[in-house]
Each structure stands twice: as structure tokens, then as C-alpha cells.
């Protein structure tokens, strides 16, 4: 499987569009994560068969889309605030649902 994410720059601006491409059509779920400068990965949301779902706290400020062939997904930052600073990641997986697991730090 090949996976590409653009842009590679480490800054973002209003209406910044991040794009993720993969070549395995069996992977019908595209996920987007934010890693703040001081913290772990947080799931922003995901698209299953082109239908986006946003996690609590990420319902506004982001727009997730997915192509009909399931091989491309985009994340648009539609508003800017300090809580959106960090590194953005995408991932792909099989399945029709995603469960978030909370990991405790000790």
C-alpha cells in the first residue's frame, strides 16, 4: 500500500487543505488526527464511504471530505484558533466504524 499526505509544510492558514491519498480501495475509512505541540494524537474525525463524522470538540472549524473511490481524503481548516496548532496526520483502515480508546497516562 502507498500513502501520501500533503502539504509537508509545518504551518497552516485559514482554509488550508490537507490531502491524503492511498491506493487500497479496501480501506474505506479515512481518519484525521491532530497532535498538539504538547500532547498525544487526538482524533478529529473520519469519513466512512464519503460520510464525515467529527469527534466532540471538533464539530466546527474542520471539514473532512472523501472521494467516491475512497482513495483520497481532505481536511480543510475552516477557522483558526490556538487549539488547532500542531501536526496533522491522516490514516486509513477497513471497516465501517471507528472506536476511540482513551489511554491513561501515569
From TrEMBL:
Alphabetized InterPro entries for the sequence: Ig-like_dom, Ig-like_dom_sf, Ig-like_fold, Ig_V-set, TCR_beta_variable
PROSITE patterns assigned: IG_LIKE
GO terms classed as biological process: cell surface receptor signaling pathway; immune system process
GO cellular-component term (any): plasma membrane
Keywords: Immunity, Signal
Pfam family, one: V-set
Gene3D superfamilies: Immunoglobulins (2.60.40.10)
Domain Ig-like intervals: 18-104
Name this polypeptide is given: Ig-like domain-containing protein
